[in-house]
Amino acid sequence: MENLTNTAAHMLEDFQHDELTQGEKSKLSREIVTALIALTCLAAGLLFRLLSPGQAAVAGLIYSVGVLVEGVPLLATAVQGFLRRDVANAMEILVTIAVLACYITGQHELAILIPVVLSVVHFLEERSIMGGRDAIEGLKKMQASTAVLETPQGEATVRAEELKKGQVIIVRPGMALPIDGCVVFGNSNIDQKSLTGEPLPAAVSVGDMVYAGTTNLDGVIKVRVEKEYQDTSFTKIVDLLEEAQKITVPEIRVVDRFMHYYIPFSLTVAALTALLSRNISYAIAVLVVSCPCGHMLVSSAPMIAALAVATKRGILIKNSKFVEQLTNIETVIFDKTGTITKGELSVSGCLLQEAESQEELLSWGGSVASSSTHPISRSLMAALGDIPYEDGFETREIVGSGLVGAKDGREVLFGSRHWIESLGYRPEDAQMDAGGGPANWVVAEGRVMGCLLFDDTVRPEAAEMVALLRREGIEKTVLLTGDRERSAQTVQEQTGIGQVFAQLLPEEKLEHVRALRQEAPVLAVGDGINDALALAEADVGIAMGSMGSDVAIQSADIALMNNDLTNIPFVIALARHTKLVMYQNIGIAFSVSLVMMVLAAVGIIPALAGAFLHNIGAFIILINSSRILRRREKEEI
Question: What is the chain's mean pLDDT, rounded?
Fold first, then answer.
């Protein structure tokens, strides 16, 4: 026994790279030991029969030991599955019956070989499943395990797990980032493909956030640790991917329901085979080939493939609603700011009163906006470009109203119409700045120069996204926003969204989601923070731009790690394709089983060969499911 245990240990050493858990190693070791014992008993029995033909009883006893060693664990699992009516143990139930039939009819060698061969085949299957685990293990390695820490004594290489919030690390070109942090020195380009799916690198400089699992491409940067190793967004994503492997798909419960009839059906076919052919070996072969290995992969194989495709595009799927409900969606609800729009104001136009040109209007506005950090001021400065402006104004901000700049006895004002009018100035037309977004007037040296109009920029792919949704059969699209009616209508005109509800509080958005759910299944799309209530209430919630946002990852069923709106129709199409593949797999699994049972019943497939061949259905299902992977990234599903 000690030698067999040592043999098992040596065999396991070959698979250390698979990062097996301790429980998996123990299980695998037990299976190897029992298989070796059973084969030893088989060899000893055959040898004893050859040397002592007259001692059949002793040979039978040796065989019995082998059957017990390999068969008792199988029997225990089968009994538990039978008592719990667990269809996942259908294979053990059928194989146990086949082994008992072999043993009772005196086919001791076959009673040992069938479970041993099945163990070998399933070991190979387990190795292929480990390939999926290897992918996740490879993903984990993208988060650097060491870091170069900046200390008063100089640089020191430390384990990433030892880094504490507030420490500063040095990241040189080609190095992966071990933590989430803020750039405090330098600038560079960061490859964020592992998180966002975006092929183009992101430029970062002082003040920008960088994330674990990404790679520094060129410049040397220093990063202040904001999240420690175990709390990074990348770690949370890997944890969710590992949980996603356990996803069950209630939509495919038809498989479970059918399996409750499948075992009695297999037993009936085996009994009829024995009765009509008067050959128990044919009946045993029927039981062996009917083992439903492929049935267990019907939903799991395409789901894993779909998760891989989605993750490559920066789409993080968290639960079974991906297939269960996303395929039934009829209404898509959008938030406006940060979802349909970029969430960044820009100058959308101007109205001239005393200024001679837009450049003059921008120049006067820039003279006071240059010292302000308000989003409107930053947008004005971005619009200035190369337009010169006079600096040196002493500026103060009037909260909720605007800016006052003074220099050499001259005064420049930049603010709302109401504030400008309250100071005694008279903008020309009271309705001329009633646009979709904010409108700020510029007054310079006592003259009303004009008005600058600002608006949130609609994402360039928004209209394409709405068109793709319609192509998927989703006609009802709704925009819910807290912004003004005019701003919402502007977005509707640019994107083609069907309905708009404006000036809503978060509670009112929630009520709209509830009302729309009464009519049809609803998908809600938001930024995952301001729209957490709506995302949680909808049948399926998608959080946009979730990289680095724990709230977004936790609040939605699906998180988009980038801001690509076309990923929304993509993930719907992916869910529908995955569901189609699942149903194809159902047909493949049961068709292959039926054909195999017929061939076994007429004696074409013997029991021992059936122990290998019953996996044909599983391999076909894996090949069919892999079609989900064989897609170009932008290819239509």
Answer: 78
